[in-house]
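Possible regression after last week's pipeline update?

I re-ran a chain I had predicted before the update to compare outputs. Posting the input and the new output here so someone can diff against the archived version. Not blocking, just want to make sure nothing changed silently.
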Amino acid sequence: GDNYWCFVSLSVNGLDFGGVCVDDYETKSLSVAGEGVEYNIIHETGNGEYAAGWTGGYMFTILGTKGETSPHDCAASRVLGSTGSCTIWDDADIGEIKEVKIYNSGDNYWCFDSLTVNGLDFGDGCSDYYTTEVFQLS
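New output (post-update):
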C-alpha cells in the first residue's frame, strides 16, 4: 500500500520492541529489544555540505543468504564527520550477511564515508529523500 506506520520506539507492558516500520495490510512479528540476533551498525557521516542527516528516520534492513530482517530505525548521530552507532535485534534467520537496505523516511539527505554491520564493511554511500538504497559488502 501507500501508507505505513513507523515507530521510533514501541513498548508494550514495559517490554521495548525498538523501532520498526509496518506497511499497509502487513502483519509483522516483533522481537523484544535485546533478544534475537544482534546487529551492531557503525557509520561515519561525511563532511560534505549536505552530508549530515537526522538522528532517526533511516530504516535499516539487513539482508542475508537465507532472508532478511524487519526494517529497524537506527537512531544515531549523523552530525558532519561524526561516528554514530546503534544496535538492533531481530528474530529472522538471515544466514550470512550480504547487503544492507536503508529506507530514508524523511526529507533529509545523508551521506556516510563508512558503514559496517557486525564488523563487515559496506563502504560509503548516500540516502536520499524518501528512497531505498541497497549497499553490498565491499
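Follow-up from reviewer: compared with the archived run. The chain is about 0% helix and 45% strand. Marking as no regression found.
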